[in-house]
Design brief:
With 120 residues, the protein is α/β, with parallel strands linked by helices. The protein contains five helices and five strands, in the order E-H-E-H-E-H-E-H-E-H. The longest helix has 13 residues.
Length: 120
Amino acid sequence: MSKTIMVIDDSSSFRTVVKLALQKAGYTVVEAMDGQDAAEKLGGNRPHLIVCDVNMPRMDGLTFARHVKAGPHKFTPIIMLTTESQEAKKAEGKAAGVRAWITKPFQPSQLVDAVSRLCP
């Protein structure tokens, strides 16, 4: 059975790039356009892993990560895939429960490797 990955980014074209890379690697993908949308979709979905951007409208990725870690999905690994590369942001992410941090632009193989390590 394939694992389900939730991809959260406010850019639909970027979500498509990520979705295609993950589907090619055999994963099922659920998309959300921001943290608020993702929080609503988590109710009916149990993703094995979440790939999330930091900068999004309505609810940013770090707020979303704290939301996830405070609820029933607290053991779901989160990978941040973002343009943010400052150590302070990465430290904030780690404190929020983020397991990996990948900076855009990225190689699809780099993402698939990270996903397969955190979601064997």
